[in-house]
Design brief:
elongated; binds zinc ion; mainly alpha; Four Helix Bundle (Hemerythrin (Met), subunit A); about 120 residues
């Protein structure tokens, strides 16, 4: 017997949409809060020592990397929201089968079923 739900219920869709929108707002807040730390480190800061400058460069690189990951996640969230809008949410992009709701609970931006990913 197949226990995997064959379709995403309307109530679940609303839940996923809320989750996605919350996630989106969270990312935007972090992005806004950290936008200053992405700025390149100035080369001639006589007041800061060499080690401090290396630290600052590493921190800046980490900030850029985290920002890149947030942009990636943001694109996935936008795509998932579009998929909800167009009734394609929860359908595997590869085989067209339904993605298990339990899987979407883990990450609502998943676009493939367990067999295809
Ligand atoms: Zn699939």
């Amino acid at each position: 017997m197949n226990v995997v739900p064959r379709i995403v219920k309307k109530s679940d869709l609303t839940k996923f949409k809320t989750n996605l929108l919350d996630l989106k707002r969270e990312i935007l807040e972090i992005e806004t809060a950290s936008s200053g730390s992405k700025k390149p480190v100035a080369l001639d800061q006589s007041s800061v020592g060499r080690v401090t400058r290396i630290d600052a460069i590493q921190q800046q690189q980490m900030a850029v990397e985290s920002s890149r990951r947030r942009t990636e996640t943001m694109l996935k969230i936008e795509a998932a929201l579009r998929r909800i809008q167009s009734d394609e949410f929860g359908i595997c992009v590869k085989c067209g089968d339904y993605i298990a709701t339990a899987r979407l609970d883990i990450d609502p931006t998943f676009v493939k079923c367990v067999n295809c990913s």
